[in-house]
Write a structure and sequence with these properties.
Blueprint: H1 10-35, E1 58-63, E2 66-70, E3 93-99, H2 101-104, H3 114-124, E4 130-133, H4 141-151, E5 160-166, H5 186-190, H6 192-216, H7 220-239, E6 243-249, H8 261-273, E7 277-280, H9 282-285, E8 294-296, E9 299-302, H10 304-321
Parallel strand pairs: 3-4, 3-5, 5-6, 6-7
Antiparallel strand pairs: 1-2, 8-9
């Protein structure tokens, strides 16, 4: 037998297998080195963005790593809100828009916000009215109620008050929520594969904890207390001759596996039992992919598309209810 055709010995087979496994592991490590997500990036607290992928933003300034993009927010309306050039300056201010950064329109041009677009939608239905946007980033339910009291303290009244309601407005316990745990083990230091799966697990754990915190805020004493707040707000508005619309905005999360359906059902139940006017946007928004409604991949506030849908729904609701009387109709 030719020595070159002799079968491999057991030792040679084991050695060949080990070399193959090591080569495979090296390829996997290199692949996961490029696939592992970076630890930083997401930021929904500031309306400034690293890219202009939809060509919607302006260049706000030059940063150390290049242009910083965004839109002018113009939030110096008294004690906070949103101001700009009205689309219908001739229309009387008959609507008050309250809420937090979603109602304010973070990352959205003033004329594209739902509260401002509403004047155009109503105009097409023969109604002359526009909205004063006093939604403020970071407001919770107590502050939103206080803001309504402030706006009406001098005797001014509004025919319609729109509250852009966000699912965390009932208050959630954030004590157990962070940005996701960081694996600082020796394996994470030396292995990109380990870091990749560690990151995926940390994000999954954070998602599960966040979902649980949201759901818990609509149970027990928290639900009773915050429901009472909503009914008190509604009573104050009705006492001033107005009508409250609670526009329930879904979290712009994967709508195919949306985990917050129970919260929307809870809000529907709260509104029905307490005779509150609620307008749930989930069905209208979920026909789109959630990411197509984001201001930016690093900021999941609703963009101008979502604001336009909200404006459409609000205009239809107000028109159907016939809350804006003849004094607000076009001549």
């Amino acid at each position: 037998m030719n020595p070159e055709e002799a079968p491999l010995s057991q030792r040679e087979k084991v050695l060949s297998l080990c070399i193959g496994l090591l080569a495979t592991c090296l390829v996997i490590e290199v692949g996961f080195h490029f696939l592992t997500p970076q630890a930083a990036g997401f930021n929904n607290r500031v309306a400034e963005y690293p890219t202009n992928h939809r060509s919607y933003f302006d260049v706000l300034r030059e940063g150390p790593e290049g242009p910083v993009y965004g839109v002018p927010m113009d939030t110096n309306l008294g004690t906070g809100g949103r101001t700009g050039v009205p689309l219908r300056p001739d229309a009387p201010v008959r609507i008050l828009g309250i809420g937090d950064s979603q109602g304010q329109g973070q990352g959205v041009r003033f004329h594209d916000t739902a509260y401002e677009q509403l004047s155009e939608r109503l105009h097409k239905k023969g109604i002359s009215a526009r909205t004063r946007n006093v939604a403020v980033k970071g407001y919770d339910l107590d502050e939103i109620i206080d803001r309504y009291a402030l706006e009406t303290a001098s005797g001014e009244t509004f025919d319609v008050v729109i509250y852009t309601f966000v699912l965390d407005d009932f208050g959630i316990d954030r004590s157990g929520l962070g940005e996701g745990s960081t694996d600082e083990s020796l394996m994470s230091t030396v292995s990109a594969t380990w870091r990749f799966f560690s990151h995926i697990k940390a994000q999954w754990d954070l998602s599960v904890a966040t979902t649980a915190a949201y759901l818990e805020s609509y149970e027990g004493e928290t639900r009773k207390r915050q429901t009472l707040q909503l009914t008190n707000l509604n009573q104050a508005i009705e006492a001033n001759g107005g009508h409250l619309i609670i526009a329930v905005m879904p979290l712009l999360y994967d709508f195919e596996t949306y985990p917050f359906e129970d919260i929307h059902k809870a809000m529907a139940d709260i509104c029905e039992v307490n005779q509150l006017h609620c307008l749930d946007l989930l069905s209208s928004l979920r026909v789109h992919t959630a990411s197509s409604l984001w201001v930016h991949p690093v900021d999941h506030h609703p963009n101008e598309i979502a604001h336009g849908i909200l404006a459409d729904q609000l205009a239809d609701y107000i028109h159907r209810k016939q809350w804006l009387t003849e004094s607000g109709m076009k001549k």
